[in-house]
Amino acid sequence: MRIRISHATSYRYETPPKSVTQVLRLTPRNDDGQFVVNWRVELSQDCQMHQHEDAFGNISHVFTAEGPFDELAVTVAGEVDTTDTHGIVAGAVERFPPALYLRETALTTPDAGIIEFAEATRAKAGADPLTMLHALMMGLNAAMTFDTEPTHVETTAAEAFKLKRGVCQDGTHIFIAAARHLGIPARYVSGHFYREDDITAQDAGHAWAEAYVDKLGWVGFDPTNGISPTEAHVRVAVSLDYLGAAPVRGTRYGGGGESLKVSINVAQASWQSQS
Questions:
Q1: Residue 54 class from Cβ within 10 Å (0-12 exposed, 13-18 middle, 19+ buried)?
Q2: pTM (2 decimals)?
Q3: Is 221:136 a contact under the CB 8 Å cutoff?
Q4: 271 and 35 Cβ atoms separated by less than 8 Å
Q5: Could you read off the pLDDT of 112-156 as tens digits, one per residue?
Q6: Among 169, 193, 209, 245, which has the highest number of CB atoms less than 10 A from its own CB?
């Protein structure tokens, strides 16, 4: 499948800032399941942008825009050819051993409720790690209601699990917390998801988890949709949790009254399309 993606992040300021520095993790890279046909990053302000790979091997861009200015826009767009690998990740950049991804973070620390859920899943699914992971995914898919209202980017896995509501970030954090409790390395993935219902406009990117299974390697699990990633998923960045894989993170110096708007479009493209 060829997927066309556009992702625009726009800021408005009531009081213009002196400068804005941002780190962008918005650019996918090639692996056995996807090939980046074309991709571009554009800024509304004239400044230098530097590309590098972060500690996890994600393609990152860093820029500082000197003010004052009333608006700042970051736009990425491109096309990616994808292949269904049945959720198995191969050919990706791996900077760390799987054991690193057993490390808890503030967003993925399990509480008593998540531990109980994980243990109940193991008791029902048995000792096979792959079977347990699929059971965790389906259990979360059934237990969690997708709702954009009650949670935010700093909501922890424990808080979201108590609510039984949240967005893809929340379900992913809960899955990671439960998997790590069971001794299975797990990590956060940010990316995009092409919906087959022809709804291409989206308010946010997508997120899912990957867990390490002996003899298979890294395998993806999407609790929000109750599936392992397919050719409809475009993988962009990985980390221990959302904070390390966030599409945009930055610092503003001076200014105030900031408002943010994110506009994303994910659509199927023809093989003949050109950027």
A1: middle
A2: 0.95
A3: yes
A4: no
A5: 999 999 999 999 999 999 999 999 999 999 999 999 999 999 999
A6: 209
